[in-house]
Sequence to fold (260 residues):
Amino acid sequence: MPQFERYIGIDYSGAETPTSSLPGLRVYAADGTSSPKEVPPPPSPRKYWTRRGIAEWLRDELSGPKPVLVGIDHAFSFPMRYFEAHRLPLDWPAFLDDFQHHWPTDEDKTYVCFVLDGGCGNGAERMGDPSWLRLTELWTQSAKSVFQFGVQGQVATSTHAGLPWLRYLRMHCGEHLHFWPFDGWEVPPSRTVVAEVYPSLWTRRFAKDGRNVDQHAAYAVAAWFQRADANGWLARYFDPPLDAAERAVAQVEGWILGVV
Fold:
C-alpha cells in the first residue's frame, strides 16, 4: 500500500528576486498512478512561477489531510564545518532563523548576489568555503558544494535563495510537515514529507517526451517518487545505510533522498 497520495517534484532556481517570473522554476505533480503533469502558476501577468509563489502554493497545497511527498532541488542545510566555523547550535530550525537573518533572500527586490556582494543583509558574517562538502555530497559523485558559486551545475545560488522559504513553510505549516531527515529519519504514518532531491539521479530513467531540462528534472522527481512508493522502495531510501556517527552528522547537514 503506497505511503503517499500525491507526489510533487520542484526544479528550483535562485535567479533574480523572490517575485521574479523564472522559466527555471518548474513544478510537476502526480496523484495515485496518474502520470506527473506540469502545474502552472496561478493566473497572473507572470508567465512562470516565482519563488514566493511556489512557497505560498505549497503552504496551501500541503495544508490538507492527504499525505504528500515533496522533493525540492536545492540543499536544505550546510556542512558541519559551517556550524563549527560560526559556532552555531546543531539545530536545524535555529540554523534557518540565523541564515535568514544574515541572508534575507526572501525579501522583495533581493538578489542572492546583492547579499553576496554586501549590498544588503550581512552575508559576510555567514560565509562558507567552496571546498566544504556535506556527507551526502561526498556520497554523490557529481554533487557540488553549497558555497560554490558561479560554476556549471552549481546549487549555491538556488540554496541561498531557497532556504528562507523552507523556514516560511515550517512557520506556516507547523508540525503538519515532516522535513526529512531533520524531523526524524522515520516518517510517521499519514504525514506529508518535504525532502531535498537531486534530479540528476533519475532524469535518465524517464523519456523526455518534449520536456525541456527544467521541466524534465521536476517530472523525474515526481515520477520516481511515485514509482518508488508503488514498489515499496521508499522505506529503504528514508533509512540510508549510515552508522550512528554519520547519522548524527546528516541530521544536521541534511541528506539527499535517493542517495544510499
The first strand starts at residue 6 and ends at 11.
